[in-house]
Amino acid sequence: MAKLFGKTYTRKEFTRYSGNPSNFAGITPMVYNDGKAKGTSALEVRTGSGLEFTLLPDKCLDIPVLRYKGVTISQQAKNGLTNPLYGQPVPGEFSRTVSGGMLFTSGVLNAGPESVEADGTFHQCHGNIGVTPAENLCARAYWDGDEYKIEASGSMRESALFKHNLRLTRKVETALGENSLLITDELENLGFTSEEFCMLYHFNFGFPFLCEDLKLIFPENNCIPRTPEAAEGLDQADKIIHPEDDFFEHVFFREVSPDEDGWCTIKAENPHLGIGAAISYEKALLPVLCEWKSMRSGDYALGIEPANMFIMGRQAERVNGSLQRIGSFEKLTFRLKLSFYDL
Predict the structure, then answer these.
(1) Is 274 within 8 Å of 68 (Cβ atoms)?
(2) Of 110, 101, 63, 142, which is closest to residue 337 (Cα–Cα)?
(3) Which pLDDT value is given to residue 2?
(4) Virtual CA dihedral for 337, 87, 136, 61, nearest 10 degrees?
């Protein structure tokens, strides 16, 4: 059944009110035509109940902007939205081109700082998958029985001559009246040898949702600071403060206990705005949770980042023994969910 503002409808009942659901819910293709984003394709998604977000087929079907009931939930870096051509692997350029956003995917060969292999192969900060365009793109909104589904899918290829051949296929799903979206990623190794890989899902909250009113709610967990600066702020790891000039980022790793179904859920609630958000993910393939607190003026952000490694960079992960492998023709499935609700 289609649900909207507390009422449920069959397809036939709903169609009596609206013969074209795209009037308020659906998925609309567009292309940016100005500034550094010029030429970048996008998909605007609306569920009709207050959830609106953008997908970028040219950038791993990531989510640069998300709003709930008119409130911007997502962070955006001061660079703004950039065309993927600006994000090609050039040493030292990541901070000048990264856009941030509600979801910025890092990997598949590297996540964390730049890394250089013994043979000279360069891996840019957070890898290349987040600036890789999708192939076989499919975007549609359609009735499936009495449910009006909205979904987009596509595949991003990470490959090189005589080397790796990895494919990440992403599907993003929601529906009419929903205040949540499901992300399903399938990572496939299409090569004949096993390959090392990194996966990091960089979910970023920003102002006005992110402010000193925000309350973070973690499941039972063990919080480990990454740096001396983070260690000094360990007792405030769950607290959001007002922006401070020259604040040095605090990064924490959390060993989170999953529920009986193997899912971990982290909540963020803003009582002043009356809005809450939840990030849920299956822990089996994403055993590490990173919390990135950037309380710096002008770079104010909170990252909740499920990962399969410790975001140290490819070489350091290898030395640490935390760089995972995917076997020849093996397929791994990652599932994550974003939900929004009223307090």
Answers:
(1) no
(2) 63
(3) 86
(4) 20
Note whether 188 and 331 are within 8 A (CB): yes
For residue 54, give Cα distances in angstroms to 83, 96, 213, 249, 341.
Answer: 15, 22, 26, 27, 19
Global pTM value = 0.97
Tokens of 122: 């360069």
Q: Rounded to whole angstroms, how far apart are CA atoms 233 and 237?
A: 6
Given a cut of 80, is residue 45 above it in pLDDT? yes
The predicted model gives 259-265 an average pLDDT of 96
Residue 242 has pLDDT above 80, yes or no: yes
Percent of the chain whose predicted confidence (pLDDT) is above 70: 100
Band (pLDDT 50/70/90 cuts) for residue 93 is: confident
* CA 50 vs CA 173, 179, 290, 340: distances in Å: 16, 7, 29, 10
DSSP-derived secondary structure for 109-160 = S--SS-EE-TT--EE-TT-SGGGPPPEEEEEEEEEETTEEEEEEEEEEEEE-
Q: How far apart are CA 164 and CA 191, in angstroms?
A: 6
CA 234 to CA 63: how far, in whole Å? 30
